[in-house]
């Protein structure tokens, strides 16, 4: 009852203007700081989504590559062990 829409006859008697004649409210322009913040948020979200898709794809691709050649060759494992040994000895 209190929130009933006013009819045209009631609007004519009321002091307020008709809704059609009311000036549209303009949106405030964003400042350069807000624009930059929105761009940054969009970019970070894009990078996160891309990371969640690409990283598992790369890992799975490496797994398939290793499986296709029959495992990791012994030479690569020996080379990795040498590098780890050099790092722990301090480069001597």
Low-confidence stretches: none
Helix content: 55-70%
Query: How can the largest sheet be summarized?
Result: none
**Helical element count?**
3
Average pLDDT number: 81
The H/E string reads HHH
Radius of gyration in whole Å, from Cα?
34 Å
Class from secondary-structure proportions: mainly alpha
Distance between the termini: 90 Å
Quote the beta fraction.
under 5%
In total, the number of strands is 0
Oligomer: single chain
Give the overall shape, derived from the CA principal axes. Answer: elongated
Structure description:
This protein has 92 residues and is mostly helical. 64% of the residues lie in helices and 0% in strands. It has three helices and no strands. The chain has helices spanning 8-13, 32-68, 74-89. The longest helix has 37 residues, at 32-68. It starts with 7 loop residues before the first helix and ends with a helix.
């Amino acid at each position: 009852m209190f929130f009933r829409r006013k009819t045209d006859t009631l609007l004519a008697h009321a002091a307020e203007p008709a809704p059609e004649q009311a000036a549209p409210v303009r949106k405030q322009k964003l400042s350069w700081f807000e624009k930059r913040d929105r761009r940054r948020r969009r970019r970070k979200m894009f990078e996160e989504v891309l990371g969640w898709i690409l990283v598992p794809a790369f890992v799975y691709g490496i797994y398939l590559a290793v499986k296709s050649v029959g495992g990791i060759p012994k030479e690569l494992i020996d080379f990795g062990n040498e590098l780890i040994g050099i790092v722990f000895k301090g480069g001597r």
